[in-house]
């Protein structure tokens, strides 16, 4: 018998209903609407099987690729759309919307980093020893960021180096 060279009207309608209603209608509902009234679930299954209906499967793939290209998101489209929204808002005098669109562009471009600091306690209520231990803890926790050596460590390292040099001379 062989494979048909063209899609039938029902096959084409099924493919379009399936792709354009993705997530809203089941494949069997699309088959029923396309005219497969007697056994829509079986028809939907067969129409999505590349061994049984390769032309339908190919058409479904083409439609999905077309939609992905049209509505898909990529960095360039996203940034340019935000810029367009910003300009539209600016033209209407909607400064808040324009600023928000520009901030969104900056975030998408990686210019902003969300950082949250949770502060607790009050320095005024701390004793001198508590303050010193807190500063030491901060320095220890952030050694890679803070390039400062506390005074005590400097004094200790100077004393140790003097002791080492004395032992070497003897």
What this model shows, in words?
The chain has 170 residues and is mostly helical. It has 3 domains: 9-71; 75-108; 123-169, no CATH class. The chain has helices at residues 9-20, 27-34, 40-47, 54-71, 75-91, 95-108, 128-141, 151-169. α1 packs antiparallel against α2 (27-34). The mean pLDDT is 81.
Mean pLDDT: 81
**Radius of gyration based on Cα positions:** 34 Å
Distance between the termini: 105 Å
- Number of self-contained structural domains: 3
Strand content: under 5%
Main sheet specs: none
- The total count of helices amounts to 8
Any low-confidence stretches, pLDDT <50, length ≥5?
none
Helix content: 55-70%
Task: Supply database-style keywords.
single chain, 170 residues, mainly alpha, 3 domains
Short description, anyone?
This protein has 170 residues and is mainly alpha-helical.
Secondary structure blueprint with pairings:
Elements: H1 9-20, H2 27-34, H3 40-47, H4 54-71, H5 75-91, H6 95-108, H7 128-141, H8 151-169
Helix pairs in contact: 1-2, 1-4, 2-3, 5-6
